[in-house]
Amino acid sequence: MTAATSVQTSLDRVLAEVDAGLEQSLERLYTLLRIKSISTDPAYAAECQRAADWIAAELNGLGFEAAARPTPGHPVVVAHGPKQDGTHVLFYAHYDVQPVDPLNLWHTDPFEPVLKTDANGRQVIVARGASDDKGQMMTFIEACRAWKKATGSLPVQISLMLEGEEESGGKNLPPFMEANRAELGAADIALVCDTDMWDRQTPSITTMLRGLVAEEIEISCASLDLHSGMFGNAARNPNQLLAEIISSLRNPDGSVAIEGFYDDVAEISPELKAQWQGLGFDQAGFLGDVGLSVPAGEQGRSVLETIWARPTCEINGMSGGYTGDGFKTVIPAKASAKISFRLVSGMQPEKIRAAFRKHVQDRLPADCTVSFSNHGGSPAITVPDDGIYLRQALDGLSGEWDKKAVITGSGGSIPVVGEFKNILGLDSLLIGFAHVDDAIHSPNEKYDLESYHRGIRAWVRVLAAFAS
Amino acid sequence: MTAATSVQTSLDRVLAEVDAGLEQSLERLYTLLRIKSISTDPAYAAECQRAADWIAAELNGLGFEAAARPTPGHPVVVAHGPKQDGTHVLFYAHYDVQPVDPLNLWHTDPFEPVLKTDANGRQVIVARGASDDKGQMMTFIEACRAWKKATGSLPVQISLMLEGEEESGGKNLPPFMEANRAELGAADIALVCDTDMWDRQTPSITTMLRGLVAEEIEISCASLDLHSGMFGNAARNPNQLLAEIISSLRNPDGSVAIEGFYDDVAEISPELKAQWQGLGFDQAGFLGDVGLSVPAGEQGRSVLETIWARPTCEINGMSGGYTGDGFKTVIPAKASAKISFRLVSGMQPEKIRAAFRKHVQDRLPADCTVSFSNHGGSPAITVPDDGIYLRQALDGLSGEWDKKAVITGSGGSIPVVGEFKNILGLDSLLIGFAHVDDAIHSPNEKYDLESYHRGIRAWVRVLAAFAS
C-alpha cells in the first residue's frame, strides 16, 4: 500500500473523528471567541496577545512547534508541523476581530458565543468573529486535530501563519514576512481561509480579489464651533462641504466620478463573463436578503460584475457636529469621513489615492483645509486557475458537498494574498465556508454550525487530496 | 423732589454699589456656573433643578417672592418684586446651558469658572454658560441687588421668569405661560437678556430675530450593516445617499434649493438697508475672527443681510457608519443628520418643515426609507421700534457706553419672544452684553468681565430710565 493509498483509506476514520469530536471542537471555538481580540482599538491589545497565546498553546498540543511571535503591533502565530516529503502547505487566517459597535443592536453579548436556531431553522454560532475569522481558522486547526487523533500524524507537511491585524490595516505583517522569508517561503502553496462558499450547496475557491485604498479626511472650516443663529449663511459649514464633496464622488449613473479612476480598469473577458453567468447568481435574492432591491453601482452591469470586477468608492464612516441626544444649533469647526476604494486588477493603489486627494483639494473653498490619513492600500489579486494544487483542492472540496466546487471572484480585499506572492513567491488558494448572511463586521455576526462542521471535514479532505 | 428725581439722584449711589460689590457678584456667578444644568441631556436633570433652586433662593434673599415651579420638564423660576405704581417689567433669561462636547477642546474644566486674560489683554470669565445665558441673567439680578442694597427698594415693579429648557427646544414653557397667563401678563413689557452688543463700544437692542425649524432625519437602506468588500457597489450606502441629499439642499450660488423656500421671504426695505449700512459692519473682521474669509451664503448680498434678513439651512450634526479610531470597511444600515433652518419674517415653520420633508422623500431610492423627528420650530419676530419703553431703554444703555445704543437685527432665534407676544400680549426688548467671540455653544465659552460689570451697571440705568 502506497502512502497515498494509506491516506485515502484513513479518510473515513478521520471524518468519523471529526463527527464524534464536534461538541468538543465547538467548546474550543467558544473559548477563542470569548477573547476580545479587537485589533483596531489599542484598549484590547492584551486580549489580542491572549488570543495569540491560546492558539499557539493549542497548536503545540497538536505536535506543532508553535509560538506567538512579537511584532511592533499584535503578535503573529507561526507554527510548523513535522517535516515530511511531498506537498508543504502554509495556512493563513486571522485571529483579530472587528469592533462590536453599535453594541445596542446585538441581541446577545458579542463575546459570549451562543448556539441558536435562526429564522430558517439553521443552527448558528453567534459571536463577534464566529465567521470572520476565528470560526474559519478553527476549521483548519480542528481538521489537523482529527488527522492527528485518528492516524497519529498529519497527511502533509503543514505550517501556519495566523495574523492579528487583518481588521486594522496592520502594516506589521509584510515586514514580518520579509524578515522570515526563508522560513515561511519554504512552503509550496498558501491556503487562505477568509472567504465564502458560493452558496449553501456549493463550495468554491476564489481566484479574483479586489484591492483596497483606505483614506480618512478631516475638513476644517472655522477655527471654532459656531452658533448657527449668529453665523448661519455667513460661515462655511463643514458638514455641508463634506456632503458636497462626498456627493461629487459618484456620478448619477453610479460610476465613480474621480478623474482617471477607470483608466487602468479592463473589461472582463467574454469567457469569464459567460462562466459567471453560468453560476446562476440570484441578484434579487442577494439584495433582498439584506432588505434592498435597487442595485447602487454602475447601471448596465450585473451586480456580480460590479462587486467582483468593478471598483467602488464607499463612505464607511461620516461624522461632524452634534450627534448626541436632542439638538444643538452648532456650525462645527470640522467634519470627517472614512472613505475606502475597492480596486480591480490593473489599478494602482497610490495612483487612486492621489487622484482622490486631488479631487477633494480641488473642491475646497479658499478658507477651508483638509487633512488626509492613509489607512493602507493593496492592489487587486488574480490567482492562476490552472495549477495542480487548485485542482486537488477543488477535488477535495467537491467530495464534501452535493455540488462540485466552483471558481469565483470576490468583492473583498485580502492583502495578504498579494504579500504571499510578492514576498514569499507563493500562490494562494482562497477556501472558506462563510455565507453572505453571516453579518460579518455587523451586529449579531454568526457562523452556521454546518459551515463549521463541514468546513472541518472539507479541510480533512483537501489535506488528503494534497497527499494523494 | 418727585419720585423720578429721587430715582435719578439715587443712580450714582447704586452704580457705586455695583462697583464696590463686583468681586462678590462674580463669586455668585461662579456658584451658578458650577452647576451643570445641561438641559438636553436627561442625565443632568437634577443639576437643572439645583440651578433653579439656587436662583430662587437668591431672589428670595433680595425681597422677591420667588419659587422654582415645576413643569413636565425642568422648572421655571418665577419671582415677583413688591407691587408699586408705574412701569412693571418682566425679565426673562435662561439658566440651562448647552452640552460641553467636544470636551477635549476645552482648556479648563467647563464647569469650573476661571478669570483669564485673553490674547487681547481682556479679562474674561471662562465656563459653559458664562455668556449664554447665566452671565447675562446675573447682570440683571445683580442690578436688582445693587438697587436694593443702595436704596432699600427697586425703582420699578419687577417680575422675573427664568427658563431651564431654552437650549433643548423645550416645549414646556408655552403651556406654563398659558397656565399662568394672568399672573405673567400683568407686566407692561418683557426684557429678554440673551443677545449681543453691536460692538465693544456700542450697546444695542435687537428688534429682528430669525425663527427656527429643527429636524432630525435618519436614512435607512440595508436591513443590517454590510461588509463593503462583499456589497460595495451593489448595496446603497446611506452615508453616500445622505451626503447627496444634504448636498442637494444648497444651490451652487449659496441659496437654499428646497422648492418654495423663498416664497414668503420679503426683501428688506431700502431704509433698513441704509440704516444697516450705516452701522459700518466689518464683514472681513467678522469672518476673520473665526478663521474664515469666504462668505458661504447667497452671493450678491452682504453678510449682515444674509445673517439678519435671509433664511438659512444648516447641518448641525451628521453621522453614519464607523467613526471611532482606526478603520472599519462597513456599509452601514443607517445614517442620520440634524438639520435646522433659520427663518425670516413671513416664513411659516410648518410650511418649511413640510417642504424640507418632501425634498428628502423625493430623493430616496425605492428601497430606502427615512424617518423624521421634529425638534421644534418658531417663526421669526419683528419688535415694533417706536415704543416708549424702547426709547427709555436706549437712553439708559446709551448712558453707560461711549457710543449711543443702536437698533439691530439678529440671526439667532429666541422663541420666547414670540410667546410673550402671542400668549401674554407683551412686546419684548432684547438687551444683552455678549460679544460675537464669546464662543457660545463651543468649547472655551467666555464672557468678558467688562460685559458682566457694565451689563450690571447698564441694567441699573435702564431700570432708572423706566422709573423716570
Automatic annotation (TrEMBL), chains A, B:
<dbReference type="InterPro" id="IPR011650">
    <property type="entry name" value="Peptidase_M20_dimer"/>
</dbReference>
<dbReference type="Pfam" id="PF01546">
    <property type="entry name" value="Peptidase_M20"/>
</dbReference>
<dbReference type="GO" id="GO:0046872">
    <property type="term" value="F:metal ion binding"/>
</dbReference>
<dbReference type="GO" id="GO:0006508">
    <property type="term" value="P:proteolysis"/>
</dbReference>
<keyword id="KW-0479">Metal-binding</keyword>
<dbReference type="InterPro" id="IPR002933">
    <property type="entry name" value="Peptidase_M20"/>
</dbReference>
<keyword id="KW-0378">Hydrolase</keyword>
<dbReference type="GO" id="GO:0008233">
    <property type="term" value="F:peptidase activity"/>
</dbReference>
<dbReference type="InterPro" id="IPR051458">
    <property type="entry name" value="Cyt/Met_Dipeptidase"/>
</dbReference>
<dbReference type="Pfam" id="PF07687">
    <property type="entry name" value="M20_dimer"/>
</dbReference>
<keyword id="KW-0645">Protease</keyword>
<protein>
    <recommendedName>
        <fullName>Peptidase M20 dimerisation domain-containing protein</fullName>
    </recommendedName>
</protein>
<feature type="domain" description="Peptidase M20 dimerisation">
    <location>
        <begin position="210"/>
        <end position="367"/>
    </location>
</feature>
